[in-house]
């Protein structure tokens, strides 16, 4: 299976939605663990990289594309 490409500052969609009703998360820390913040209620979650990659559905907004447009 191909590894999913994501980066710091990307807004991603996970397979399961957050209880607040939002399914969009912003990646705010990368390393062995990935910290992401809910875009709806600002709740922060820390997941191991392997679990994050399993649950990642797609990248909604790439931070690289936003930087290149400015």
Strand order of the largest sheet: 4-3-2-1-5
The number of distinct β-strands equals: 5
Element string (H = helix, E = strand): EEEEHEH
Mean pLDDT across the residues is 88
User: Gap between N and C termini, in Å?
Assistant: 34 Å
Please state the CA-atom Rg, rounded to the nearest Å.
Answer: 12 Å
How many discrete structural domains?
1
Instruction: Indicate the overall shape.
Output: globular
Helix count equals 2
Low-confidence parts, pLDDT < 50 over ≥5 residues? none
Summing up helix and strand content along with how strands pair, one would put the structural category as alpha+beta
How much helical structure, as a percent, in the residues? 10-25%
- Sheet-strand content, in percent, reads 35-45%
**How is the biggest beta sheet arranged?**
5 strands, antiparallel
Protein name: DUF951 family protein
Organism: Shimazuella alba
InterPro entries: DUF951 (IPR009296)
Write the layout of secondary structure elements.
Blueprint: E1 11-14, E2 24-29, E3 33-38, E4 44-48, H1 49-55, E5 56-61, H2 63-69
Antiparallel strand pairs: 1-2, 1-5, 2-3, 3-4
Explain this structure:
The chain is α+β, with helices and mostly antiparallel strands. It has one domain (11-60). The protein has two helices and five strands, in the order ββββαβα. It has a five-stranded antiparallel β-sheet with strand order 4-3-2-1-5. β2 (24-29) and β3 form a beta hairpin. The longest helix has 7 residues, at 49-55. It is globular, with a radius of gyration of 12 Å. The termini are far apart. This is DUF951 family protein. InterPro entries: DUF951 (IPR009296).
